UniProtKB/TrEMBL annotation:
Residues 41-318 form the MRNA cap 0 methyltransferase domain. Its EC number is 2.1.1.56. This is mRNA cap guanine-N(7) methyltransferase. It is found in: Nucleus. MRNA binds at N50, N51. One of its GO terms (molecular function) is RNA binding. Catalytic subunit of the mRNA-capping methyltransferase RNMT:RAMAC complex that methylates the N7 position of the added guanosine to the 5'-cap structure of mRNAs. Binds RNA containing 5'-terminal GpppC. The record marks K82, K88, R113, H163, E245 as: mRNA cap binding. Belongs to the class I-like SAM-binding methyltransferase superfamily. mRNA cap 0 methyltransferase family. It comes from Fundulus heteroclitus.
Amino acid sequence: EEGEDEEETSPTKKLGTDHSKKVATHYNALQEVGLAARSQSRIFYMRNFNNWLKSVLIGEILEQVRGAGSRNVSVLDLGCGKGGDLLKWRRGGIGHIVCADIAEVSVDQCRTRYEEMKRKSYSNDKIFSAQFITADCAKEVLSEKLEDPKLMFDICSCQFVYHYSFESEQKADMMLRNACERLKPGGFFIGTTPDAYELVKRIEASDSLSFGNEVFNVSFQSKGSYPLFGCQYHFSLEGVVDVPEFLVYFPLFEHMAKQYNMRLVLKQRFSEFFEEKVKKDQHRSLMMKMMALEPFPCEDGGQQASDNTEEYCHAKEH
Ligand code: SAM
């Protein structure tokens, strides 16, 4: 399918012939074509909801890290995309960020967004320092690419990304290694990923090999049996995402994380998170702001079907 010629000329060359190349090519192309206005409006509220959720998660984890005494907070954004979370980190007053992604066009855009943010900031409003890395984080060891080889992170954030690594045990492990090996003891690994139970439940209930609505579609090649790794499905979200993804069997993910000295502290479905935060009146004002008619400035991330997703947080043991 992916011939030699394409390998030679593609900006994503050296990425190999597996699904990671398809994913990188897909996300690289997104930047070139931009988001069609039509798609933007159809998934507008979902994108804002996802951004609200990530903002709250990031805000809460920063509070915890600071509460534990960390001052100059350092963050690894694993699968940063175009930098949709940069503003969240800025609002959170972090000291340093490393942004890594397999799609080099996205990384370039992330860097540009950061430079722009820096240019516009007032002199007394010191913006965090940053490093940008293009790498297949399911294959390459990120710590070898750090400008500061001694750098340790307070937080690794992996938003709507980890499921791409579940193509094989080796890849899932490498992604996890990158997420956890440079975390300080007491540091956190936070993220969002599709809920495999929900996906399997829905495909089993479907009388075909797919389910969805006029906006999104999930299709499997077969059903009835779901391997622990490499259980591929195709996710498409109108005009924005159209890629192969893999089920993440959460108990296995949790078990694998333990090998990196990580303990699961929280796992919730988006709906549970929403109920807990908004219905208890917490974070309601931010939600209202993000649901306002204008897109939230500089927010651009996580285009998933929100009712199929869950978020998690692992802490590194002391
Ligand atoms: N985290 C960003 C956000 O929330 O806006 C982007 C999420 S986007 C749905 C998924 C991102 O994962 C894409 O930017 C894609 O290039 C990246 N990605 C997928 N596989 C990856 C890998 N093996 N290594 C690094 N990045 C990867």
